[in-house]
């Protein structure tokens, strides 16, 4: 038993003073200050001056993802350990069905990578790399038998993960019938491929051209098309991943204003980093920030609009899209050809801290911070109320967050398996102090007490977030 005493508990509706009793793997009770058990067989953790929040739920990670001739550099072991350090106690990773592969085989391969190796709990979405009769049937099986209730499709990456509009519509119709969520990588891949080819023919090979060949219009167009297609599929639930651009956000906001089941996430990189300052860094340095959708221009209103979208709930979730690649030997695959740089940024360890900055800067309330990093992702993807809330009966996934401490982000201190940090030198007001996962203390007093194998696979139900 653990009694977390003297803290400010923060839920999606805001902060309140309370003591939290953990028995075994669950939260047992929440008491008004000092009204809980006074003595007994429990460890007391002093939370005075700290926020007591539900463990973070990162609904978008790619451990060990094969991409661009290499693999994302975090394994489930290293990546979930880094997540724990950063206050994230559940990840939802993407199992992959590659084109031509049987869906269930792709899923089994992902279980093979993750099972027994995770430090925090984990669940899977399924990437459909090929929509056909077989994979449509498999969608039903995954929902009913495997606890996998969301499917990611790609309007980008022709020849790799790409689905055409007919395939997308069929998958959406299936999801409408079985209750699953369609997650969309919304960028017009065929049009992007034309721009990439033309840029390379002009000798434009530096990393910044990754961003310049993926213009906002092609994200907005794909987002709009996905929304229209979901409408044709009788308002199939649609979740736009890694939304980066103002005009894509406008499409989502307009659909939501019509009461549609359309949702979106953004990621910390789009809230802070830019095409010019990071992707456009001198020489090949910008490769560190090659991800898709790309970082957007600082001369436009993207970042301010995304923060506003988080406040208005046009953006419901912040995930990381954690997809790390080392600079040496991995990002370097694209020297002389930006299109060969593996796409992805690693930040599974920093999401809770980076979003707390929004509270410090007056852009988010405390409740909204918790809602976007924990409660809503849990609800959106069928993990609630097991995850995403501190309540009796919920898993005791709890983070003590110290607003008076500071975090300096960088390669010397992070725990991700990366030789650089996209956030090198960032100073954060606030710090993850203590991390508890299903009643087990993983991080306390700057030391790590977790172990691989503690994290369990979680079967998910259907989303309870639909309009
Ligand atoms: O650049 C990215 N986002 N890499 C991961 C794959 C994806 O599309 O989410
Ligand atoms: Zn994507
Ligand atoms: Zn609105
Ligand atoms: Zn992704």
From TrEMBL:
Start and end residues of each Amidohydrolase-related domain: 51-441
Transmembrane domains' residue ranges: none
Keyword set includes Glycoprotein: no
Enzyme class per UniProt: hydrolase
CDD domains: D-HYD (cd01314)
Secretion signal, residue range per the UniProt entry: none
Keyword field: Hydrolase, Metal-binding
One function term, GO molecular function aspect: dihydropyrimidinase activity
EC number(s) reported in the record: 3.5.2.2
Required cofactor(s): Zn(2+)
Keyword Membrane: no
Record-stated family: Belongs to the metallo-dependent hydrolases superfamily. Hydantoinase/dihydropyrimidinase family.
Protein name per the record: Dihydropyrimidinase
Organism: Dactylosporangium cerinum
Origin organism lineage: Bacteria, Bacillati, Actinomycetota, Actinomycetes, Micromonosporales
Gene expressing this chain: hydA
